Amino acid sequence: MNASATEMAAEEMKAAAVRESEDFAAERSAQVEGFVKTNPGYYRSQFARIGNDAKFVWTFNLWAGVFGPIWFGARGMWNWGLAFLILETLAAVQIVRGLFGDLAAEAWERIGKIEGTLDLRRQQLAAAIENNTDKIDVYRRTVESLEDAIGGIRLEAEQLEGTGLTLALVGFVTLLAFKAGQAVIANTLLEKRFSDWLSDPGISTGMTPRDMALSCGFVAVIMVATVIHYSFPGLYPWLIEFPTEHGIRLGSIRGVEDFFAFCVSNGEVFFDAVTYAIRSVLDALEVIFVQTPWMVIASFIILLTWLSAGPRAAVFSGAFLLYMGLLGFWEKAMTTLALLGTAACLSIIIGIPLGMYCARRERFYSFIRPIMDFMQTMPAFVFMIPVIAFFGTGKPAAVVTTMIFGGTPVVRLTVLGLRGVPEHVREAAISFGASKWYLLTRVDLPLASPSIRAGINQTIMLSLAMVVVASLIGAKGLGEDVLEALQYANVGQGILAGFAILFCAMILDRIVQGDRK
Length: 517
Hints:
Helices cover about 85% and strands about 0% of the residues.
C-alpha cells in the first residue's frame, strides 16, 4: 500500500514537472513571437539552440546576410548596423571604382600639370639655344627630367587602368565575406537583444514600418553618396562643399554684436559692481601674499602643508619655495597665488552652495548642466572675448575668465558626493529626529566631504592651468614669463617659469588633499 502511494506521488510529480515544462515552453514561445513579430517559428528554434549552449552557436540568417545593415537597423541594433554599413560601403566603393571609375584620373591630371611646365621649359631651352647662353645645359636637364617624370607617371596610369577588374573582384569577395559574417552572428545578437527585452520591455520589438523606412533611407543615402564621391571624384561638387549662405553668417555676427553692445550699455552698474568685488578680494590677497615678508608667507605655507599632508610634503614645499625665491620668481609666484586664490575662493563660495541646492533638485540641475558643459568645453580664447567686452582687460577680467573655466568641477562633485550619501543613513538620522540643518551639516556634508574636497582640488588645478592664458589680458604673474618666453623663443625662461607654476600646483594640491584621513 505504501509502495503504491509512493508511485502515485512520483507520477504526480512527473506530471506536474511536465505541465510546468509545457507551460514554460508555451510562455517562451509567446514571448519570442511577441518580440520578433515575423517568422516566429524560425527564431523560436534558433533562440532555443543559442540559449541551451554556453558557447557560440553557428547559425545562418539569410535575410540578415542579404539586407545587412538594413536588417540590423530595422531590428533596432543600430550600433551593429552602422559598423556593417561602413564595411559594406568600403567594399561597394571598390567594386564601383573597379568597374566604372577612372582609376588613373589623378595620374593623368598630374601629367597635364607637368606638361604645362614642360612646354615652358622647352620654350626657355629654345630661347637659350637661339641666344647661345650658358643655361642651355640647365634647361636641357630640366626638360629631360620632366620628360622622364611624365613617362613614369604615364606607366603608372596605364598600370592603374589595368587593375580595375582585380579591384572590383577584391571588393566583391570582401562584400560577400561581410555579408556572410552578418548572417552568422545575426541570430546571436538578436537573441541577446531578446534577453534584454525580457528585463526591459521598453526595447523596441519586431520590424516596425518606421524603423524599416528609416533604416532603408539612411543606408541608401550613406552608401550612394559615399560610392559616388569616391568612385567619381568631382562629379557632384555639392557632395563636398556644403551649401553655405554667407548672408546668414553676416546676419548672425551682427546679431551677436548687437546683443553684447546692449548688455554692455545696460549692465554697466552690474559689471562695475562685480569688478569692484573681485578687485577688493584680489587686493586683499595681494597684500597678504606679495607685501607680507617672504619668510612669514613661506613659514605659513610650510606649516599648513605639514598639518595637512605631513612632514615629508612640508619638506618638498620648502624646496619648491626655495626654488622660486632663488630664481627670482617669488613676487610673481605670490601674484599668481593671489589671482588664483581670488578665482578659486569665489568659485568655491559660489559652487558648493550651488551644488548643495542642485543635489536635491534634479530639474534645476538638468537646467544648469548644459551651461556648465558650455563653460568647460568652450575654448578659453572664445569666452575671453565677451569677458573683455564686459570687464575690460586686467586682473578682474582674468579672474572672471579663470572662474568660468575652473568653477564647474566643484559644483559637479558636490552634487555627486551628496547624491552618493547612503539613503539608509539619512533615513536613520531622520528617524532619530534629525532636523534638516542637522542632517545637512552632520550627515550629508561629512559623508560627501571626500568628493567635495576633490571638486575643490580640481577647481584649483584648472584655475592654475589658466595662468598663462590669463596673462594675455593683463593677469601678470608667472604666466607673463611663460608668454614672453613663447613670444621670443626664450627656452630657458619658459621652462623655469613652467616649473614654478608646476610647483605652485603641487603645493596647493598637497594642502587641499593631504595624506591624512
